[in-house]
Write a structure and sequence with these properties.
Elements lengths: L4 H30 L35 H5 L50 H12 L2 H23 L10 H8 L4 E8 L7 E7 L6 E7 L14 E5 L8 E3 L5 E6 L6 E6 L4 E5 L8 E2 L10 E7 L6 E6 L3 E6 L8 E4 L14 E5 L8 E6 L3 E6 L5 H4 E6 L5 E6 L6 E6 L2 E6 L8 E2 L7 E6 L6 E6 L3 E6 L9 E4 L5 E6 L5 E6 L3 E7 L1 H4 L5 H24 L10 H31 L2
Antiparallel strand pairs: 1-28, 2-3, 3-4, 4-5, 6-7, 7-8, 8-9, 10-11, 11-12, 12-13, 14-15, 15-16, 16-17, 18-19, 19-20, 20-21, 22-23, 23-24, 24-25, 26-27, 27-28
Length: 594
């Protein structure tokens, strides 16, 4: 039968009534016994201690019967139990090794200086001189010197013919590094703590080999921006991926930031609303100073770079409003200088080019810099110019879209790298019409790139398909030396540690990935800088010859014509490559067959 709350209550009342009747009968029996005999012992026990309750019924009743439903049985899915261990820290193991104990033996030796006789005190100069004269007059000594003279002469001749102190395997370690296959490894992943994921638009390493990585987070697609989006950016300790080391709270999202190379705690940043903010990681989360809205850029600040100066407080910024502004961190109320990227030299903001990347090198002229624009042109500027026409020196045109990254070579200041549209280009400052080297067009858009600080011929690029490309132009020019799939989403930024063995990539889902570069791509190679210098110089000469040929010049190098110069450059290139191959083969044979 179906047991309901009403029937259950009636059953309880019935049980209680029967229990009262039993208790009443027991008391009556006890009263009759008291008239006849005395009770010596009485045992009392609670009903709850008797154990299971007795059923006041002589039959078993079925309360409910739910038969199985065959239709539901067909929908039942049996899943296997899976155990998955998740660890947020480094995997470590402990090993113990027992080695044989090295036995030591202490021994002494008595040495008499010079092997002098016992009766000669070697500390007395007169006695030693007298003994030498006596020995030199001995015939046996003279005969011994004559016999040994021929032997010594033969040894001297051998030493002059063969350098016994020559280091035959001095470059053995260098050869092993060259032969090592290039490879990288993902070391850590740092995720945006906010639930709405933003783009990692800029990365900056702490100077002087520090272990902190500053990352700027910004959602660039303003048409899809959320109202509750976070305005925070973070500084990460590379050893702790679980939570940021410092949180930078700002009134506007940060697009770019840069560590001060002279101060490990000062950071300049550019915001979406055009403001410039100065941060000190030691003094909390709020900026130490910021520019007023009326005295800064009118568009987002896409790049800011510290300038080497005696005070270490100067920087300059680029924005799509067409202005390059110079700042002093001690006084951010207004910029110290201003340049409008108007190619007509009229300082008209309406026709100015929007700058999104900057490159500066102290080894060149201290007032010159390069600005990459969203129109695809690179503008070479000189701050020391007296007029607007003198400040904009020339332009380099070669990209079909925005120049997302521009950087001078750390080893050759006359050459610089640009990244934009579907490829990367290497330029020479002396050739303005075209780049001297470039990669073939990729299937996906390139978003950022930079040089290696330790390998002159290596640079890095990231693409929209989440792939990191590592190029070694001394080894291969048409294809990257190594391509690594870092993320499934697009990569938006990259920066290499000054040691050259680590780099960080930022994605459009708010994830910064730390990658370790193996020694094959992070250790200087033998004669690499000289070979790359010859290659860049040869390609620069080739472009000058081609430019002269297009311009109709009879000769560009003395009396030689363009065709002869091209053939001469090709001949020099093949000679250099053949000599380098022969050198490597000879070193390989010397290493394997000494």
């Amino acid at each position: 039968m179906l047991l309901t709350s009403r029937t259950f209550g009636e059953a309880v009342l019935c049980l209680c009534a029967k229990a009262k009747e039993f208790i009443k009968v027991g008391r009556t029996c006890r009263g009759d016994l008291d008239n006849r005999m005395d009770i010596l012992h009485e045992y009392v026990k609670l009903r709850s201690e008797f154990g299971r309750q007795c059923l006041f019924s002589d039959r078993q009743e079925l309360l409910v019967d739910v038969p199985p439903n065959p239709k539901l049985a067909s929908q039942f899915v049996i899943k296997e139990t899976r155990d998955l261990g998740v660890q947020g820290c480094w995997e470590m193991s402990e090993h113990e090794v027992n080695t044989k104990r090295f036995e030591y033996d202490n021994q002494g030796i008595n040495h008499v200086e010079g092997g002098w006789p016992k009766d000669i005190n070697h500390l007395e100069m007169e006695q030693t001189i007298r003994f030498r004269k006596k020995v030199e007059k001995d015939e046996i000594y003279m005969n011994s010197v004559m016999v040994l003279g021929t032997v010594i002469g033969q040894c001297v001749g051998q030493n002059n013919a063969v350098d016994i102190y020559q280091e035959y395997f001095r470059d053995e370690d260098m050869l092993d590094e060259v032969q090592e296959a290039p490879s990288v490894k993902v070391a850590n992943v740092y995720r945006d703590p906010h639930h709405v994921k933003r783009h990692v638009t800029c990365l900056s390493w702490q100077p002087n080999g520090g272990n902190h990585l500053a990352a700027a987070y910004c959602y660039l697609q303003t048409d899809k921006a959320h109202l509750g989006m976070s305005q925070e950016s973070y500084i990460w300790d590379i050893e702790n991926p679980t939570q940021p080391y410092v949180t930078l709270h700002s009134t506007s999202q940060l697009i770019c930031l840069d560590y001060n190379p002279d101060d490990m705690h000062s950071i300049f940043s550019g915001c979406v609303n055009g403001q410039i903010a100065l941060w000190d990681a030691r003094n909390g989360k709020s900026p130490a100073a910021r520019t007023p809205l009326e005295g800064c850029h009118t568009d987002p600040v896409y790049k800011i770079v510290w300038l080497p100066s005696p005070t270490g407080t100067e920087a300059f910024s680029a924005s799509t409003d067409g202005q390059i502004l110079w700042w002093d961190s001690r006084q951010l109320s207004q910029p110290t200088d201003r340049l409008v990227l108007d190619l007509s030299r009229k300082e008209n903001l309406e026709t100015a080019l929007g700058a999104i990347s900057l490159a500066y090198d102290q080894s060149t002229q201290p007032d010159t810099f390069l600005a990459g624009t969203e129109q695809g042109a690179v503008v070479y500027c000189d701050r020391a110019g007296k007029s607007a026409g003198e400040k904009i020196v020339c332009t380099y045109d070669g990209h079909h879209g925005p120049v997302y990254a521009i950087q001078r070579s750390p080893f050759f200041s006359q050459n610089f790298l640009t990244v934009g549209d579907w490829g990367a280009r290497i330029w020479s400052q002396d050739v303005k019409e075209t780049a001297v080297m470039w990669t073939r067009h990729q299937a996906d858009y390139l978003t950022d790139g930079c040089w290696s600080p330790v390998r002159p011929s290596v640079f890095f690029t990231v693409k929209m398909d989440g792939v990191l490309d590592i190029w070694d132009i001394l080894f291969k020019q048409n294809d990257p030396t190594l391509s690594v799939k870092v993320r499934d989403e697009a990569l938006s930024s990259i920066n290499v540690h000054q040691g050259g063995s680590r780099l960080a990539c930022g994605s459009q889902e708010g994830i910064a990935t730390l990658i370790e570069i193996k020694s094959g791509l992070s250790s200087p190679q033998h004669n690499e800088q000289e070979l790359l210098g010859e290659m860049l110089e040869r390609e620069t000469k080739r472009e000058k010859v081609l430019r002269a040929q297009r311009g109709g010049d009879d000769g560009a190098d003395g009396e030689a014509g363009p065709k002869e110069l091209v053939l001469r450059s090709e001949h020099d290139f093949h000679n250099v490559m053949e000599s380098e191959q022969r050198r490597k083969q000879w070193e390989s044979r010397q290493r394997h067959y000494p």
